[in-house]
Design brief:
Elements: H1 2-15, E1 23-24, E2 28-30, H2 40-49, H3 53-59, E3 64-66, H4 67-80, E4 86-87, H5 89-94
Parallel strand pairs: 1-4, 2-3
């Protein structure tokens, strides 16, 4: 159900008369600078997987982004736009 709601929301936003709209699909997000998730299961996951992050990033470099990378990508898109409206993890890291 979550994917249907997200997909419908993305499509609805893209139909609005904005100059541009960008949808982020970040995949795995690594919190930076002391940020902690409010969702208990995510907090536990970060604690358990934290030591494995360097290995996961080496195995899946295009699937993992940091909160800092996502924030910078959002700012850059707001200023300069991008060729795609829906950004997957590889696009976010590229921006």
């Amino acid at each position: 159900m979550w994917a249907r709601v997200k997909g419908k929301t993305e499509n609805d936003l893209l139909r609005l008369p904005f100059k541009a709209a960008f949808m982020f699909r970040p995949g795995a997000i690594v919190p930076m600078h002391g940020i902690k998730s409010r969702t208990t299961i995510y907090r536990i996951s970060y604690v358990v997987l934290g030591p494995l992050l360097p290995v996961l990033r080496a195995l899946f470099p295009k699937s993992i982004a940091t909160t800092e990378q996502i924030g910078r990508a959002m700012l850059k898109l707001a200023k300069h736009g991008y060729s795609k409206s829906i950004l997957e993890p590889a696009d976010i890291n590229q921006v």
